[in-house]
Amino acid sequence: MTASAPGDGFLAIGAVARAHALRGAVVVKPFVRDLEPLLAAGLEELHLRRGAAPPRAHSIRSIAPFGAGMLLLALEGVGDRTAAEALVGSEILVPREDLWEPAEGEYFIDDLIGLEVVEDAPGARAFGPVLDIREGAGHDHLVFAHPDKPGREALLPFVAEFIRDVDPAARRVLVRIPDGLFEL
């Protein structure tokens, strides 16, 4: 899962997973669990970016749920399988002002990346920035640098028991570290 570049005005909402059929549609892996707000947002345009290339605007022909938690997306100007296959791996971006407000206690991944992970305890330790959010079967995981093993990551379940407070204005996430987390 990737995040949009800080300050570019976009949020990543998914990635093109594969081409679908022959008329240029693509299957999208969304970065949101609940598709209803995305589908209800009435988006008419989105942007695609591969790697470090600048985002390119595309008008949406259609967007609909597809299979288990995926989306089927058709874009203007993408009319055949070859054109659709060229989009595989592209990040799907939406201008921040076109997005819906997340529900209470929910966050866009891009809004969490880079926040400082700080222990909510006496003698609190700071663990560095949120590196990623990893999707899990039952819940997501907050990813940050392992404090005792350089080059390794620590994964903390993104659940109320361990995530005490998310404060984007203060640029931090207060966490409770369960016993044994860093021994894994």
Helix and strand arrangement:
Elements: E1 10-20, E2 25-30, H1 36-40, E3 45-49, E4 56-66, E5 70-75, H2 81-85, E6 91-95, H3 109-112, E7 116-119, E8 126-129, E9 132-134, E10 141-145, E11 153-157, E12 163-167, E13 172-175
Parallel strand pairs: 7-13
Antiparallel strand pairs: 1-2, 1-6, 2-5, 3-4, 3-6, 4-5, 7-8, 9-10, 10-11, 12-13
Gist of the model:
The protein has 3 helices and 13 strands. It is mainly beta and 184 residues long.
Give the percentage of residues in beta strands.
35-45%
Oligomeric composition of the shown chains: single chain
Number of strands: 13
Helix content: under 10%
Query: Taking strands numbered 1, 2, ... along the chain, how are they ordered across the largest sheet?
Result: 1-2-5-4-3-6
Low-confidence regions: none
Order of helices and strands: EEHEEEHEHEEEEEEE
Q: Helix tally?
A: 3
Radius of gyration: 18 Å
Summing up helix and strand content along with how strands pair, one would put the structural category as mainly beta
What is the averaged pLDDT score? 92
The end-to-end span amounts to 23 Å
Overall spatial form: elongated
Q: What kind of sheet is the major sheet?
A: 6 strands, antiparallel, barrel
Structure write-up:
- The chain has 184 residues and is mainly β.
- 8% of the residues lie in helices and 40% in strands.
- The protein has 3 helices and 13 strands, in the order ββαβββαβαβββββββ.
- It has helices at 36-40, 81-85, 109-112; strands at 10-20, 25-30, 45-49, 56-66, 70-75, 91-95, 116-119, 126-129, 132-134, 141-145, 153-157, 163-167, 172-175.
- Strands 1-2-5-4-3-6 form a 6-stranded antiparallel barrel.
- Strand 1 and strand 2 form a beta hairpin.
- The longest helix has 5 residues, at 36-40.
- It is elongated, with a radius of gyration of 18 Å.
- The model has no long low-confidence stretch (mean pLDDT 92).
